[in-house]
Write a structure and sequence with these properties.
alpha/beta; five-stranded mixed beta sheet; two-stranded antiparallel ribbon; about 45% helix
Length: about 220
């Protein structure tokens, strides 16, 4: 089963069991984000990115340019370990990690969560690649990926789903990154991009591998 098929199955099951008013809040927020044109401002293939340093799950700094000295980097931005679609994506990426590395690339995942939260996510999904904490979405903002959760969605997550986004992220901004995956070459140039406003959609692992093999 492809990742898309897994995600679609999860989305259909969620819609079936979730009360209509709760589903509508989530769906309306997603549709509004799609209509906002936010992806037009996101970095795309051909753009050159800024260097950055972020802490990993053990609070050690990881510098992108150091990784790019000898290999390409696959960057995956995700919302947080509380997001089931993100966890499905992380597991799918873990499954193709040997092939990514065989194509002279390093896999790095980035979320706005604090390192302790990222550590939990990494352990839960048995992740062996770097998971970095982009606190306050500083890097995600440089990529043009950041949006603010609407108030009704904040309340739904907090009061109905018991998802404390503020505690996970260590701030009260309620800002999240779009689901996005990039491949960066040794010169810091983007050679593949996948950016979507719809959190139930993610880059297909086979497409990532094909981009690595063809660039």
């Amino acid at each position: 089963m492809t990742l898309k098929e897994q995600l679609d199955t999860k989305a259909a099951a969620t819609k079936k069991v979730l009360a209509s008013e709760k589903y509508n809040i989530m769906n309306n927020a997603t549709n509004a984000l799609a209509q906002s044109g936010i992806t037009k401002n996101a970095l795309k293939t051909g753009d050159t990115i800024k260097d950055f340093t972020l802490n990993n799950v053990t609070n050690n700094p990881v510098n992108l340019s150091n990784s790019l000295k000898s290999k390409r980097v696959v960057l995956s931005f995700y919302r947080g370990g509380w997001c089931p679609y993100c966890n499905m994506e992380l597991k799918a990426l873990q499954n193709i990690l040997p092939e990514i590395e065989a194509n002279n690339a390093e896999l790095i995942a980035i979320s706005p969560e604090l390192p302790d939260q990222s550590l939990t996510t990494s352990e839960k999904n048995e992740i062996s690649f770097q998971v970095l904490s982009d606190v306050d979405n500083k890097v995600a903002k440089d990529f043009g990926l950041t949006f603010k959760m609407p108030k009704d969605l904040q309340d739904l997550y907090t009061n109905e789903f018991n998802i404390q986004v503020d505690k996970h992220n260590g701030n009260t901004d309620y800002e999240l990154p779009l689901a996005a995956t990039y491949i960066i070459n040794e010169n810091g140039k983007i050679i593949y991009d996948f950016v979507t406003e719809r959190y139930t959609e993610r880059a297909e692992p086979a497409d990532i591998l094909a981009a690595l093999q063809n660039n």
